[in-house]
Amino acid sequence: MGQNFNSGIVIGSGQLVGYWGQIDRSHLLTSLLQAPVRPLGKLPLGCSASGLDLDCWVRLQDKNLILGREPFGRMPLYWTESDRVIWFSTHLQLLLPLLDRSAIDVAGFYGYSCCSYVPTPLTPISGIQAVAAGTEISLSLETFTPVTVTKNCWQHSPQQLTDEPTAIDRLQGLLQSAVECQIQDLSDAPVGVLLSGGLDSSIVTALLVKNGIKVRAYSLDFGEAGISEYPYAEQVASYLQIPLIKVPVSPKLVRRSLDATVRALDSPYGDGVTVPLYLLCQAASREVSVIFNGEGGDQLFAGWTNKPLIAASMYGGSPDLIEPYLQTFHRLYGYESQSFQPQILDRIESLSPANWLGDALDSQRAPELLHRLRRASLMLKGAQNIHPRATNLARWHGLKVRSIFCDLPLAQWTFGVSGTLHLQGACEKYILKRAVEHLLPPEIVWRTKRGMGVPLTAWLFQELWSDLGTWLNPRVLERAGYWQLDIAARLVSGKFGGTLQGRRIGEILWLIIMWEQWRIQVLGEPPTSKSWRHPFWLPQPLWRLLQNLKLIDN
After folding, report:
1. Which pairing describes strands 191-194 and 290-293: parallel, antiparallel, or unpaired?
2. Which CATH number fits domain 164-303+358-445: 3.40.50.620, 3.40.1390.30, 3.10.129.10, 3.40.190.10?
3. Nearest alpha carbon to residue 468 among 516, 544, 536
4. pLDDT, tens only, 461-497
5. pLDDT tens for residues 332-346?
6. Residue 506, class by beta-carbon neighbours within 10 Å (0-12 exposed, 13-18 middle, 19+ buried)?
């Protein structure tokens, strides 16, 4: 006989797993766990990546199970129903043993190919759903039909602050309050900061130092192949008089760390920064237990792609902005017929990417264009990509990760600040720069953002060239049944699409590599044996020569 059992457990570094309902096979819960456990007892329960406010929670209400997440999306939360039992976990892999077969969800795969992450509430696995950031899902044991309630935290304020001195003063106070909130439980032990040398991570570092926190900074070094940001990180560390640890990233280290990075990420993330960030967390974990990053600043203060999107709104004839926004991901949206095998094309024909973006870009939620774009970045690129992958990479190494810009009062205040103070002429994040210019050297505050220069194309065309023959071997792709067999060769030879060139080629190749490695490392699908007939087994110059002579296929 089954029993009505409510259980939740925290395992490892703040992971949450549990079940609710009629269950007569409690051994399944034990089989899910491969780490020491600490029982939490009856519901309600919650979990935090940072040790502060809850990032996700589970509770009972009116005989319904409520699964919820905070709006920044720091901690993922997944659920599935099996034999009238609802299972939930912050780790996708812990739910896989409950399924008879881990079948790929085609909508999730398509979303990944467009965005480089799987848009919530989709997951890459059929039968498992994700709770979207800033929402609660109510589930009844009788119907198991999810009812989703969205908490609109990013609400446009009718009263827009336009006075610059007032905005500067208020922002400085909010930044200080955010820091105080996130350092209140720290001991005298040093904390780590992932310092890129960009504005946001430099602000976080400066605020921590100002508040008397012992800081050790960690910065990536890509060598001669990448666009080096390390000199800026060095300048910040010198200015603030803190130690800076250089973390080298080379093709050899990327190759060696790829499998572990994929497992640490849990769900597939196709950005090229993931392995470097894995190495950064790995280095920090040897010396500290808490790390801070600068993630969230771009979303809050109108960094990134806002100027081209504003131009698209004015001149592009697309008032809903969905099409232009999809283009900002620079992935495979619009290239479906050149990317997927026929059976996948047939199944995605009825899918609309607008469903993943529509709520985030809803003009009724944020009538002012810049606030709408910031809201979309918070809900899409921040909550579904940047923050959850940062949490997963950190907790893999036993770290707690904190983001000063993930502060609700600060974030909500920004929606009451006029867009002219966020974006002034060509200057992005203007009000933030004005508020912190007393904390950092002016060349750090006012320089143009460049982003992390991961040299994917250079690596894949040189040191990792032969690895393409292993990772994207046509025999592997044929067996998997998703990508067209010659997609890698067409990308490398420049015969995939006229607008895909330079760094974009490496980004698309890496997107496909990460998906294929995720299938192997997380789903346990065996890789197909190597095919020595694949052209990438030839040295790159010889491959180019034979291709030009038309002695090999493209």
Report:
1. parallel
2. 3.40.50.620
3. 536
4. 999 998 988 899 888 888 889 999 999 989 998 888 7
5. 999 999 999 999 999
6. buried
